[in-house]
TrEMBL record:
Pfam families: NMO. GO terms for molecular function: dioxygenase activity; nitronate monooxygenase activity. This is 2-nitropropane dioxygenase. CDD domains: NPD_like (cd04730). The keyword Secreted does not apply. Gene3D superfamilies: Aldolase class I. It comes from the Bacteria. Keywords: Dioxygenase, Flavoprotein, FMN, Oxidoreductase. The lineage of its organism: Bacteria, Bacillati, Candidatus Dormiibacterota, Candidatus Dormibacteria, Candidatus Aeolococcales.
Length: 364
């Protein structure tokens, strides 16, 4: 049992995993740091309900993040995390904030670097990057990260090519740190399946986006709920990297737009993002140069990468379905309700217990 966190009566020991111990939470369920979605209300509700809520900092200014951290702490005393970009111009200041405020976990959508991991761990912050291949897990484990989220091809947003059912067994064999499964999870049966594959819990984005505490506009949530399992597509047309989204007419147009015709729109969005996040023009150029060097991108691809957050914001914040993209996991085709976060987590844990009871003890 985690110190200070009582284990609910009747919960099988198998559901209190090493991830629960590492994060200091009751249940092995993580709400991922979705840009424009994972704000203070959603993160706090998740942590208060016994999971691990994670704030998304990539689309916040430093001041907004500091305010969001304070708001989460005002809503719950439970542990929570912050998702950050290792190439963020204010990453050093953000690390200092996490350490000073006692934030439990730092997660990363892209691989951090060894010095960043070391600095966070020295400050008492658990580090947890998302990976999409066993070799990536081995690499970051060698840097000293505390856990990884292994996201399979079914997952939303930027995603890899290996299905979750193959990725999880491979990653849990490759590393000895706790592994959280992501991609396709939404209920208690999935949680039990992840544990059977060797994981220490699950991380979910789309399922938490479709809750009442999510600030995504209702008409946008309705579009997610209406999607079928076959209504998503993995495209490079948004920012040059494979990204799973709901297929819309805008996505189809983006896939048909290449080269010079895409550049003016991307440049305008990059400058708008700079104003919203308080990034100086010099920092924006410096970040673009770093992306160009580290990822081998052309300037057109760099502009596309800067354009992507604004396309997401148009839909998930402004509710403009015709002008924005809808990052999602394939699991959106199975979700048909909008529970509260507490109702979701409670139902997942009850179903996981029922699933374990149905399977019963192994025969001798």
């Amino acid at each position: 049992m985690t110190a200070g966190v009582p284990e609910p009566a009747g919960t099988p020991a198998v559901l209190h995993t090493p991830a629960c111990e590492l994060f200091g939470v009751r249940y092995p369920i993580v709400q991922t740091g979705m840009g424009w979605v994972a704000g203070a209300r959603l993160a706090a509700a998740t942590s208060e309900a016994g999971g691990l809520g994670i704030l998304a900092s990539a689309t916040m200014t430093y001041e907004q993040l500091a305010g969001a951290v304070a708001e989460v702490k005002g809503r719950t005393a439970a542990p929570f995390g912050v998702n950050l970009r290792s190439n963020h111009p204010d990453v050093g200041q953000i690390v200092d904030l996490l350490i000073a405020e006692g934030v439990k976990v730092a997660s990363f959508a892209q691989a951090p670097n060894p010095s960043l991991v070391a600095g966070l761990r020295e400050g008492g912050v658990v580090t947890m990057p998302t990976i999409a291949a066993p070799r990536h897990a081995e690499k970051v484990a060698g840097w000293g990260v505390d856990a990884v989220i292994a996201q399979g091809h079914e997952g939303g947003g930027h995603t890899g090519s290996i299905p979750t059912s193959l990725l999880l067994p491979a990653v849990t064999r490759a590393v000895s740190i706790p592994v959280l499964g992501a991609g396709g999870f939404h209920d208690g049966r999935g949680l039990v399946a992840a544990l059977a594959w060797g994981a220490a819990g699950v991380a979910m984005g789309t399922r938490f986006l479709l809750t009442r505490e999510s600030t995504v506009p209702d008409e946008v949530k309705a579009r997610y709920l209406a999607a079928a399992l076959t209504d998503t597509v993995v495209t490079r047309a948004i920012d040059g990297q494979p990204q799973r989204v709901i297929r819309t007419s805008l996505v189809d147009r983006l896939e048909g737009r290449h080269g010079p015709s895409a550049t003016p729109v991307a440049l305008a969005s990059a400058l708008r993002l700079r104003r919203l996040t308080g990034t100086s023009l010099r920092a924006l150029v410096r970040e673009g140069l770093a992306m160009k060097r580290s990822e081998g991108l052309t300037w057109s691809q760099v502009l596309m990468a800067a354009n992507a957050p604004m396309l997401t914001r148009a839909a998930l914040v402004e509710g403009r379905l015709e002008a924005g993209v809808l990052p999602t996991g394939q699991v959106t085709g199975l979700v048909d309700d909008l529970p509260s976060v507490a109702e979701l987590i409670d139902a997942m844990m009850k179903e996981a217990v029922e699933c374990l009871e149905r399977l019963g003890p192994p025969r001798r």
